[in-house]
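Exercise 4. Each item below gives a protein and its sequence. For each, produce the structure-token representation.

Item: ADP-ribosyl cyclase/cyclic ADP-ribose hydrolase 1 (Rhinolophus ferrumequinum).
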Amino acid sequence: MSNHRFSPVSEDEPCCNLSQKAKICLGTFCVLVVLTIAVMVGVLWGLPAPKLKEWDGKGTTPNFPEIVLGRCYTYTKVLRPELSHKDCRKIGKAFMDAFLSKDPCSSTERDYQPLLELTNQTVPCNKK
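Answer:
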């Protein structure tokens, strides 16, 4: 077995070999870290929760879904009977799903893709 001997350390002898300047720098660094964390927590704690965008206008036209459905039926049954196979209820739902409760500034073509597929029609060459 090895023989370990502990010797007492005098109070005059420092326990670690850091200079006075290094101790001051280390202490200052620790204080700065604590202050930075405290400021960040204070700022984040004091910020209000982000407010969601909310429409404050008059609102939508009353019976809007029924209007869309009626116009689809008028178009497909009266004006363009060759499109009578189109499902106006599916078209109306796809139209509503494309923009309902979405931010109009962030809507994309992909949002309207189901609607475009349901309403696809070919225009004869001699028609405008």
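Check: Helices lie at 20-46, 64-79, 88-99, 109-118.
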